[in-house]
Amino acid sequence: MRIFLSTDMEGTAGVVDWSQVRGPAAEYEYYRGQLQAEVNAAIDGALAAGGTEFLVNDSHSTMQNLRPDELHGRASYLSGKHKPLYMMQGLDDSFDAVFFVSYHGSAGSTSSVLHHTYNPRAIAEVRLNGAITGEAGINALAALAHGVPVVLVSGDRVTIDEAQAFCPEIESVVVKDSVSHNAALSVHPERARELIHDGARRALARLSDIRLPSITLPAELTVRFHNGAFAELATQLRGVERREEKVVALRNDNPLQLYRSFIATVLLSRGVSE
After folding, report:
1. How remote is the C-alpha of 218 from its chain's centroid?
2. Contact 104/160 with Cβ under 8 angstroms?
3. Do strands 123-128 and 131-132 pair parallel, antiparallel, or not at all (unpaired)?
4. Per-residue pLDDT reduced to its tens digit, 17-67
5. Are 266 and 274 spatial neighbours (Cβ–Cβ below 8 Å)?
6. Three-class SS of residue 81?
7. What Pfam families would the database entry show (predicted)?
8. Half-sphere exposure (CA, 13 Å, Cβ side) for 92?
9. Do 21 and 10 touch, CB atoms closer than 8 A?
10. Dihedral of alpha carbons 223, 259, 28, 4, sign
């Protein structure tokens, strides 16, 4: 049983500030260790339910946050700051399940701690078929394209609520409740690891009952940027339509092509905003 695990960092228990998720600060070094432990807990739980092979895609920031020698020995590790398919690089139809570990709320969910969607400097909101979505919903497009169900999501409660709009049968693991953009009530790290371990085990135990992401095709992503310059830039890409001064729309009956187009807009905006 092959498991694809995409991991972010803002959804880790205890994380409430950018300094905790960006190196080289001492706080970051501590919290990358907490992230590592949560990832390993997910793998351990999956192993208990029959998982045999794991690909971990390090998907946070420069995407080189985990320590390979401390990663669970049954996992391979995909890292590096440029991946054509970003958070979903490496997924194909040979996998049986997708895990999203330490995910966070969307740019449009102002109640979620450290909320953003891919590029916080450029993107103000993303909607999938009219509903506000975060990275879990967007990334589910790639899972749908490959015919692999998303079965586990961990993070704060807002993240889970947003993911369930498109993956209603996921095993949800809430490790914290957001208070504001920079505050949250988290469970103890040991408890977070227990919850993730048990969630992963339960997810695979009922894998046959979990359907593919519930996304009507053709699907449409609408992206609201912080300013019109980003929207104008995005229209240089084929298939991107300007809807409003700051809003563009991408539509496709192929979910993987739609996802690819969205990633292209993100990379384009990132090159300008950074």
Report:
1. 22
2. no
3. antiparallel
4. 999 999 888 999 999 999 999 999 999 999 999 999 999 999 999 999 999
5. no
6. coil
7. Peptidase_M55
8. 2
9. yes
10. positive
Q: For residues 248 and 227, is the Cβ–Cβ distance under 8 A?
A: no
Three-state DSSP state, 151: strand
Is residue 36 within a helix (H) or strand (E), and if so which, with residue range? helix 26-48
Residues near 73 by Cβ (< 8 Å), separated by ≥ 6?
Answer: none
> What distances in angstroms separate CA 254 from CA 42, 140, 236, one per listed residue?
30, 13, 20
Contact predicate 16/113, CB 8 Å = yes
- 135-146 vs 255-273: helix axis angle to the nearest 10? 140
pTM: 0.97
CA dist 202 and 33 (Å) reads: 25
Q: What digits encode the pLDDT tens for the residues 147-202?
A: 999 999 999 999 999 999 999 999 999 999 999 999 999 999 999 999 999 999 99
Nearest to 229 by CA among 195, 271, 171: 271
Return d(Cα 25, Cα 6) in angstroms, integer.
24
- Phi and psi of 225, rounded to 5°? -95, 170
Segment 228-267, tens digit of pLDDT: 999 999 999 999 999 999 999 999 999 999 999 999 999 9
The span from the CA of 82 to the CA of 151, in Å, is 26
